[in-house]
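Late entry, written up from scratch paper. The run itself happened at the end of the previous shift, but nothing got recorded in the book at the time, so transcribing now.
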Amino acid sequence: MSADPRSRAQRRHDTEHRLTHDIDVWVASAAADGAPYLAPLSFDWDGEALLVATPPDSPTGRNLAATRAVRLGLGHTRDMSMIDGEVEILEIDALPRQRGDRFTARTGFDSRALATPYRWFRISPRRIQARREANELEGRKLMRDGRWLIDERWRAVPDEAIK
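Output as recorded:
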């Protein structure tokens, strides 16, 4: 038997906790012909966007560059947040050094020091959903069009405030 469903406010809190404390995320991308690809990558969250690094000629790197769209899976199947995002591509030396240092400190991975060329991919969330089990399907949407549906004081944002 599953626990009572969480409020949207609690789901936002839990999602932000995962973004702040988790290190790895599942990255789902698609090639131009629609062929899907799924890969785990380390990430850093700065409060606005997730930063990941991967070689530009890897399937994930090619797909993100071609479509500029991504779906991320954070957590495990019985407590997950799904994030649809827009992708910005940055060459490895284009990121401010302190931001790259923060990524390395958080993930234990420094793509700047490798012989294989890497790129940064900055992912801005456009839609976020969070759920545990079937009883949380209702109310799972936490962000729409890049705007939280629950504000930082954990109150519902009126529909007219979301463009």
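Strands lie at 24-30, 36-42, 44-45, 50-54, 69-76, 79-91, 119-131, 141-144, 147-148.
(Scratch paper discarded after transcription.)
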